[in-house]
Amino acid sequence: xxxxxxxxxxxxxxxxxxxxxxxxxxxxxxxxxxxxxxxxxxxxxxxxxxxxxxxxxxxxxxxxxxxxxxxxxxxxxxxxxxxxxxxxxxxxxxxxxxxxxxxxxxxxxxxxxxxx
Amino acid sequence: xxxxxxxxxxxxxxxxxxxxxxxxxxxxxxxxxxxxxxxxxxxxxxxxxxxxxxxxxxxxxxxxxxxxxxxxxxxxxxxxxxxxxxxxxxxxxxxxxxxxxxxxxxxxxxxx
Lengths: 116, 112
Prior knowledge:
Chain A is mainly β.
């Protein structure tokens, strides 16, 4: 079956702009999590959605937001982009919310954002 | 903060076993040990997880000490494609929506 699909794979934005990233989970998976990966901070949890509800949120400013649709697809948005937002944004899906099953997450290839 | 400690880097010869250690001295009784790996420019990939018994699957073996304060991931016959960053994570597997907390991981380099 198809894996987790993230679009776009690469994008370049300038400071002050906003960006929307998309994630299509594995068919049947209802939980979607987002992570930010930077060389300095490593992999950091952003938020998790299950059945269109945000269940958990990491320690990121309000400029970072997300949502999940009824078909489990998810989007994350970053407004007023800063240089430090340059990162690889990873989406992961699981059958149940993190912590409610074996905990295996399936990650996508990521969306690499560069902010100039 | 990550609840695990791993060496920053390790080397292994191709065809030999790679043994990656992880310390998790503050692990709770209901926390599992998970291993993921991330090959350059790809998303992390699940490898294996366990609670207190040793586990084995087609990718690797997981050895957890009796006091559960440390574990070792074993890749029995490492190949060049196993070169990656390996993350050891402890988390509750049932109940709640606890997020995964990734540490810095171990950069494993498999040499020809």
